Amino acid sequence: xxxxxxxxxxxxxxxxxxxxxxxxxxxxxxxxxxxxxxxxxxxxxxxxxxxxxxxxxxxxxxxxxxxxxxxxxxxxxxxxxxxxxxxxxxxxxxxxxxxxxxxxxxxxxxxxxxxxxxxxxxxxxxxxxxxxxxxxxxxxxxxxxxxxxxx
Length: 151
Ligand SMILES: CC(C)(COP(=O)(O)OP(=O)(O)OC[C@H]1O[C@@H](n2cnc3c(N)ncnc32)[C@H](O)[C@@H]1OP(=O)(O)O)[C@@H](O)C(=O)NCCC(=O)NCCS
Description:
Helix content is 32%, strand content 36%. By secondary structure, the protein is an alpha+beta fold. The chain has one domain: Gcn5-related N-acetyltransferase (GNAT) (Aminopeptidase, 3-Layer(aba) Sandwich), CATH 3.40.630. The protein has a six-stranded mixed β-sheet, sandwiched between helices. Strand 1 and strand 2 (47-56) form a beta hairpin. Helix 3 (79-94) packs across helix 4 (108-117). The longest helix is centred in the middle third of the chain and has 16 residues, at 79-94. The structure holds coenzyme A (COA).
């Protein structure tokens, strides 16, 4: 995911593999509790179709969606939209009213997906950073908008 589609993620594969396994084991263990952060996997009988993470931001009314990825063999079937709705449901359960995320300006499919799912740009953008050119845009939606958004 980070290696094959590096251009779409601000996090770099080479940085991630430098971290000790314990960092990611702790992340997953905390996500399994689903209180401050969470990880959802979509799968079928053939295996994993996609993944998405989310965490509660410092502002407890906001959840940040991260690391959305769908296996190329499963794309175009609504998997990403389903994962976004699952995150919105998780945010609602926490009492958060808004979902926020960053998408790279150059990620045309990603930007189209988020608009289709109900997000809109805030107008803010930041350099991608970590040695990457370009900018990432901030987009946001209310939980209600995401849950009401239909195919
Ligand atoms: C972007 C990505 C998550 C989309 O996953 P997906 O499961 O194929 O998306 P969906 O089938 O749920 O598509 C929902 C909407 O997104 C838009 N969309 C998805 N892929 C698109 C593409 N390649 N080109 C244009 N629009 C696209 C469409 O509007 C689509 O709605 P429609 O089918 O009614 O037209 C997937 O291509 C991916 O994993 N890309 C690489 C990683 C990435 O960019 N992640 C996001 C980082 S912010």
